[in-house]
């Protein structure tokens, strides 16, 4: 657990395990920075799964996706090849079609927070036009807000 998460009021969060693959490292032997954004997606999809929701079903059944419109990452310490990591993800805001997720990537071995960040999304239809978040998803997201 990230120190202070429960103390700071974050009660609902998802966890996803990833292990750093060799191809994700750069010439210096550390994880290339863009991979953290990929791991944010892994965490986001897993959080939805843990909430009883399916991103795939939202796209297929509701003809609705959640497009990334903003992403931010703060790198605190490097991850290296074969490190086991936990991606912790939680919701911080849902307003109409806008959803904001927050992330913390933690190295399992020593519980060091390697990266923190957030993404902002907008619900869009198949034509990539802003649309309402499907009711079931909006209600479930509201239950998980910190």
What does it look like?
It is a single chain. Strand 4 and strand 5 form a beta hairpin. The mean pLDDT is 92. This protein has one domain: Thiol Ester Dehydrase, Chain A (Roll). Strands 1-3-4-5-2 form a 5-stranded antiparallel sheet. With 146 residues, the protein is of the alpha+beta class.
Question: Would you spell out the secondary-structure blueprint of this structure?
Answer:
Blueprint: E1 14-19, H1 35-50, H2 55-62, E2 65-75, E3 84-95, E4 98-107, E5 113-124, H3 135-144
Antiparallel strand pairs: 1-3, 2-5, 3-4, 4-5
* Largest sheet data: 5 strands, antiparallel
CATH H-level superfamily title:
Hotdog Thioesterase
Q: How would the global form be characterised?
A: elongated
Give the tally of β-strands. 5
How many domain regions?
1
Which keywords apply here?
alpha+beta; Thiol Ester Dehydrase, Chain A; five-stranded antiparallel sheet; 3 helices
Give a short summary of the structure.
This protein has 146 residues and is of the alpha+beta class. It has a single domain (14-144), classed as Thiol Ester Dehydrase, Chain A (Roll). 23% of the residues lie in helices and 35% in strands.
